[in-house]
Amino acid sequence: MEAENLFNLIDQYDPLDKKTALEFLSLSEKYPYFQLPMFYHTKSLKEQGSDHYKQNLNKLALKTMDRGILKNSMEAPIKAHSPFEIKKTIIEKESNKIQVDLDNKVLVDNSSNEEIDKLKLSFIDWIEFTEDNNTKYELEIVEDKKSPLQDKLSIIDKFIENDPKISPIDKSVNSFDEIEFDDYSDELMTETLAKVLVKQKKYKKAIRAYKILCLKYPEKNVLFASEIEKIKNLQLQ
């Protein structure tokens, strides 16, 4: 799929632009099971007052798992945005790396004497563990600009298949050392990580994360598109 072209259309989306609506229509016809282009095409028809709006909305509803989200997304106002600039941090190394820099200070509940079980957690469990214990951390994403998008998506598939294990932290520890994940690119994103980036107000990285999730989980791309619009509105505040 012309992923970059789709990203550009979303970044510069104007519901009143008939040319853009036709481009989304073309993509939806080329990829009938990919809901995102159909959503934006239908949204354009609504804003333009087209007679074909209801017919297209019914078709989109049949392909949407959560019609409540679809309804809210259709009714949500869309503001004009300037083209989204993707800023990349490039490092020169023999292999791609993604580094997670954690704040030196970790909030520790000194009132509790219970020790953390020494069980190893999956990557997603580790994220939930740090959130439940009010751990503050920052994510710094690094990317090799020479790696094509398809290669990066393959890396994501490999990562999920292997489900790497990370040990939890001890409550007696007051700081984190730098943790490195070798051989993974900056598009190694889960929905949980995307939400963390939004909470940290790293909106550009969060948008990029949701775009990758749109490609990986097309059945949820209406939801992810709605999240992208919410983030763009936050950027304007």
The succession of helices and strands, N to C, reads HHHHHEEHHEEHHH
The main β sheet shows up as: 2 strands, antiparallel
Largest sheet: spatial strand order: 1-4
Radius of gyration: 20 Å
Shape: globular
SS elements, strand count: 4
Structural class by SSE content: mainly alpha
Question: Outline of this structure?
Answer:
With 237 residues, the chain is mostly helical. Helices cover 49% and strands 5% of the residues.
Characterise the protein shown here.
The chain is mainly α and 237 residues long. It has ten helices and four strands; from the N terminus they run H-H-H-H-H-E-E-H-H-E-E-H-H-H. It is globular. Helix 2 (18-30) runs antiparallel to helix 3 (35-47) and helix 9 (203-216) runs antiparallel to helix 10 (221-236). The chain has two domains: 3-85 and 192-236, no CATH class; 97-185, no CATH class. The relative contact order is 0.15. The strands form two sheets. A two-stranded antiparallel ribbon has the order 1-4. The chain has a two-stranded antiparallel ribbon with strand order 2-3. The longest helix has 16 residues, at 221-236.
